[in-house]
Amino acid sequence: MSIMIALKCRRCASVNLQRHGHTASGQQKYHCTDCHFYGTLATKDAEREAQRQLVEQLHLERSSQRAIARITGMSRCTIMQILKKKSFNRSQRR
User: Fold this and answer.
1) For residue 58, what are the domain limits?
2) N or C: which end of the chain has fewer CB within 10 A?
């Protein structure tokens, strides 16, 4: 018994997809034969946003930047950039 999973295009929701190589990070790329879209099916935007929210939550809990870097596996420079953007956006609202 085999289960077939229908992959759908992000742009037009068509199932007429062909594999078309890999990205530099190793994700499978696809080509939609209906709308001629090239790219991956799943973006990492949701994963990145969850990681940013985790950094902000740990910062609110008064964890140090080094501790946040150890927990999340991100570099300290990335942690500082996320926190700077957060504080910049907060100051823009006032």
Assistant:
1) 45-93
2) N
**Nearest alpha-carbon partner for 54 in 39, 73, 38, 77:** 73
Three-state DSSP class for 47?
helix
Residue type for 72, please? T
How far is Cα 11 from Cα 32, in angstroms, rounded to an integer?
Answer: 9
Q: pLDDT (tens digit, 9 = 90+) per residue, 9-18?
A: 889 989 999 9
Q: Can you give the pTM of this predicted structure?
A: 0.59
Of residues 92 and 80, the one with the higher pLDDT is 80
Q: How far apart are CA 36 and CA 32, in angstroms?
A: 5
| 32 lies in the same domain as 3 | yes
